[in-house]
Amino acid sequence: MPLREPDDGSGVLSPAHIASQKLRIRTPACGDLPLLGSDPKKHYRLGIMGGTFDPIHHGHLVCAETAFDALNLDVVVFMPAGSPAFKQHVHVSSGEDRYAMTLLATSDNPHFMASRFEIDREGVTYTAETLRLLRSIYPNNVELFFITGADAIADIVRWKDAGNIADLAHLVGATRPGYDLRHAQAAIEESPYDFQVTYLEVPALAISSSYLRRRVEEGQSLRYLTPDAVTGYIHKHELYGARSLSYGSVMGLEKTRVYDGATEEVTA
After folding, report:
1. What angle do CA 194, 200, 202 make, to 5 degrees?
2. How many domains does the chain have?
3. Residue 171: strand pairing partners
4. Is the pLDDT of residue 268 over 80?
5. Which of 12, 47, 151, 174 stands the most exposed, by the fewest C-beta atoms within 10 Å?
6. Which phi and psi angles does 66 have, rounded to 5°?
7. Per-residue pLDDT for 27 more than 50?
8. Structural domain contains residue 118
9. Residue 158 phi, psi (nearest 5)
10. Res. 182: pLDDT tops 90
11. What is the distance between the alpha carbons of residues 69 and 111, in angstroms, rounded to a whole number?
């Protein structure tokens, strides 16, 4: 069932509009999580794409798609971090804004979902607690795959309740070409916990959210770095110091024609 166009004439699908239709496409098991595990004879694979997503970009999306294909996942759920422990003293955009951008970015992929699972929880959010809650929701024939960057894999052995993380999920470490895995591999091998880790090379991971924020602050384009709908949201809500622009300006649809020294603005 395709997503219907909004009725306001803006050409932009709102997060609420997308969420309402996606819930009709996928029956949620708990809140906005996918329904998996109903057939006891079948083995299911649930990908969990964790991150701050401030903002989400094509590197995140290519990473999730690569994991989906390589690991034969049933679905990848993007979970914007609620109040991440490692960013307690760093400014982070609101959970609502980060969730909305994630929802917009994943709306056209039938095997991606965006979830409020972490941002709706109170207090500091920890990966181990998220995985424990997911494990309590899904039956044992649903295997959890936690997708993160390979640099985080090197640190995960020091995360809160790291042993529980090792017990609850298969880790997927995304790397960019040329990344030296030895540090991450050594950390896992020296850990007292039995981590299962798969490493995937993802060329698009050269992009970072901090790079996108800096470009917005400097008034530079985000085209080809993040979906157009995310760029539109950033400007509409003036995130990262962006100024509010028309939809056509944000998407690069407005062009200028010159006639005998006069200009005429047109929409392609």
Report:
1. 150
2. 1
3. 146, 197
4. no
5. 151
6. -60, -45
7. no
8. yes
9. -105, 0
10. yes
11. 11
Interval 37-83: pLDDT, tens: 999 999 999 999 999 999 999 999 999 999 999 999 999 999 999 88
The two three-digit tokens of residue 87, written as one number: 């960013």
Residues 6+ apart with CB under 8 A from 41: none
Which stretch of 32-46, 80-94, 196-210, 212-226 has the lowest confidence by average pLDDT? 80-94
User: Model-level pTM greater than 0.70?
Assistant: yes
- Name the more confident of 206 and 114: 114
At 246, the pLDDT band (50, 70, 90 cuts) reads: very low
The answer to whether residue 7 sits within a structural domain is: no
In-domain check, residue 215:
yes
Q: Which residue range forms the structural domain that includes residue 225?
A: 15-267
User: Quick check: 54 and 84 in contact, CB under 8 A?
Assistant: no
Q: Give Cα 156 to chain centroid, integer Å.
A: 19
Residue with tokens 């166009």: 5
Mean of all residue pLDDT scores within the chain? 83
The 3-state secondary structure of the chain, one letter per residue: CCCCCCCCCCCCCCHHHHHHHHHHHCCECCCCCECCCCCCCCCEEEEEEEECCCCCCHHHHHHHHHHHHHCCCCEEEEEECCCEHHHCCCCCCCHHHHHHHHHHHHCCCCCEEECCCCCCCCCCECHHHHHHHHHHHCCCCEEEEEEEEHHHHHHHCCCCCHHHHHHHCEEEEEECCCCCCHHHHHHHHHCCCCCCEEEEECHHHHCCHHHHHHHHHCCCCCCCCCCHHHHHHHHHCCHHHCCCCCHHHHHCCEEEEEECCEEEEEEC
Q: Is the peptide bond before 192 cis (omega within 30 degrees of 0)?
A: no
pLDDT at 259 over 60: no
Place of tokens 């992009």: 207
